[in-house]
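REQUEST FORM: STRUCTURE PREDICTION
Request ID: SP-0412
Submitted by: Lab K.M.
Chain count: 1
Length (residues): 226
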Amino acid sequence: MLTKPKQVTAQITLTVLFILLSVPGFAIKKSAKKYAVNPYGIVTLYDDKFIYSKATVDTIESAEPGSDVEIRKIIKTKGRPVKMNGKVIHDELPVFKQKHNLEEHLLNKLRGELNSLPNGKYTLELYNMIINEDGKVCAFSYEGISASEAEDERGKSVFVIDKIQAQHLFQKICTELTNLPPFEAPQLKGKKIISVSNPIYPNQFWIRDHKILIKQKDQWRDLPVF
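STATUS: Completed
RESULT:
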């Protein structure tokens, strides 16, 4: 029995692939980018190059509650980003010029993931957003999401969120930050600058029966839907 040479088969395969690629709407789907927190506690969303300050070690003394005994504690801090692509990162506030503030915007985008969390008060440890001159979020500090089972703000009971669920939420946060409408970058001497600030504050919300509540004017209210 005759068989086709392997070389001919390979040529046919390449020809078919070339034809498919030329068909409108056909494309090889790229796998989604996986983001990660680097040793400095920073998540970089693109290929920007950062220079970090040196880590510091501080000693503080404090008294335990109900005691006059001073306890010495050593506090270690990681270096922080001071330059991006050779340019200084300024401690200035970019403006998010949208109908809803950044907290409302981001939590709405994360609604599907957040609604699946159990009832409790949550803190999203997302801060120090680095915004470039075009108003794009390029990096941020991230320490995860913590939760309390308490139904009042005095509660101290903390539970651990499922690791897979937490990782899925983290990847979703990164994706949504790359798709944010641009900020209005601050200016220095008439030129737009790279800035770092905390436009999301206080980073806390409640989940109650698959509803998201945020604090507005000292009251917990349902997150606006848009």
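NOTES: Confidence is low (pLDDT under 50) at residues 1-6.
Reviewed by: T.R.
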